[in-house]
Design brief:
This protein has 143 residues and is an alpha+beta fold. The protein has five helices and six strands.
Length: 143
């Protein structure tokens, strides 16, 4: 397992355990996090990242964040994955995405997620997962 991917795996485990402090421990103080590139302005700094994570945590249950593929180039990690969870109302939300994480040492300094938020919005409203989303979910998780 590559070094940067191993760090992301720890972030995933911390998030699944709903341990926001541990997740933040993997981020640089000056992190710039684009949760939805080109749709939302970036979150800047750990305090803002905490607020975003707290907002997410309130509606994310039974989290099954999975990575299907990853590659490293220097201090950059590229991933393809899915955020898959249940809302407080029990609706399944499964949003495929691609992400780019920039590291400074062992800390995430930049994080850019490329995601179609309309997929998430439709699922939260009760729409079923589309065939193309289901096809993307039925793949082997990266080791």
């Amino acid at each position: 397992m590559s070094r940067l991917y191993a760090i992301l795996q720890q972030v995933i485990h911390a998030w699944q355990a709903k341990d926001i402090d541990r997740v933040l421990g993997f981020m640089a103080d000056d992190i710039v996090w684009h949760y939805a590139v080109a749709v939302m302005p970036p979150v800047r700094g750990k305090a803002a990242a905490r607020k975003l994570l707290e907002r997410f945590q309130a509606d994310m249950h039974r989290i099954e964040w999975r990575i299907f593929a990853h590659a490293e180039a220097g201090d950059r990690l590229f991933v393809e994955g899915v955020d898959d969870y249940r809302t407080a109302e029990g609706r399944r939300v499964a949003t495929p995405y691609a992400g780019v994480l920039d590291f400074r040492g062992d800390l995430i300094a930049g994080w850019r997620d490329y995601v179609d938020l309309s997929v998430m919005t439709q699922q939260k409203a009760g729409e079923p997962l589309t065939r193309q989303v289901l096809e993307l979910l039925d793949r082997e998780v990266a080791p």
